[in-house]
Design a protein that fits this description.
Helix content: over 70%
Protein name: Yip1 domain-containing protein
Keywords: Membrane, Transmembrane, Transmembrane helix
Distance between the termini: 39 Å
Structural class: mainly alpha
Number of helices: 10
């Protein structure tokens, strides 16, 4: 496994802005594909039961397009905010454990590990585009590769919690393991302290998923 993660270790050793620019660019590509190709006009046409767009649909499409462009434009900022929040949390726990790691180094480890999440999102979009045409809304919402969602019966009541199940996937596990690996290798933390830092992230991430679920129900 160390050989598998050695490129991440090398990547995380580079300058912060180099890491951020590369990760932000890949994240932007993933966001553009998802927002404009996966959620295409055809998906929305199927959702409202139209074969040909009418005037109201075209107006709605323009509004969605502008909203998506705004999301695309702010994706690097949102990436920075997410990374900053997790960095602050992990730094606080490291301070409590008296194994303080520089915030900049923590954020570099987070951004480098986040490549696994981006890779998962790209695979998700490519699978939908190549193997599931024509797409409908449920195809997009109730599927994520190598996630807990795949183990649920399509008719199960648990499917209504799809925002949580789709985010519990192998790519998030790789992100977590990569963070653990970088804490051990780059920051020379003990196994115990690395585990505590990772647990703090897992608890925070779990709380975020529950909050996401509550506002989406």
């Amino acid at each position: 496994m160390s050989h598998f993660l050695s490129p991440i270790n090398e990547f995380a050793s580079q300058s912060f802005w180099r890491i951020f620019i590369i990760v932000a660019a890949l994240n932007l590509i993933s966001t553009l594909i998802y927002n404009h190709l996966v959620w295409s006009e055809l998906v929305y046409l199927n959702e409202v039961g139209l074969e040909v767009p009418n005037d109201n649909f075209r107006k709605g499409s323009k509004t969605r397009f502008m909203i998506n462009l705004t999301v695309d434009a702010f994706s690097p900022l949102w990436l920075m905010v997410k990374s900053g929040i997790v960095t602050g949390l992990i730094y606080l726990i490291s301070y409590i454990l008296n194994v303080i790691v520089a915030p900049l180094h923590i954020m570099k480890s987070i951004l480098a590990s986040y490549l696994f999440v981006i890779f998962g999102d790209l695979i998700y979009s490519v699978i939908l585009l190549l193997y599931c045409p024509p797409l409908v809304k449920n195809d997009i919402l109730h599927f994520y590769p190598l996630s807990f969602l795949n183990f649920l019966n399509p008719s199960s009541d648990l499917n209504k919690f799809y925002p949580i199940w789709s985010r519990i996937n192998i790519f998030q596990l790789l992100f977590i393991f990569s963070l653990y690996y970088l804490f051990r290798i780059q920051h020379n933390l003990s196994h115990k302290n690395s585990i505590w830092l990772i647990l703090s992230y897992i608890i925070f991430y779990g709380m975020f998923l529950v909050f996401w679920l509550l506002i989406s129900i």
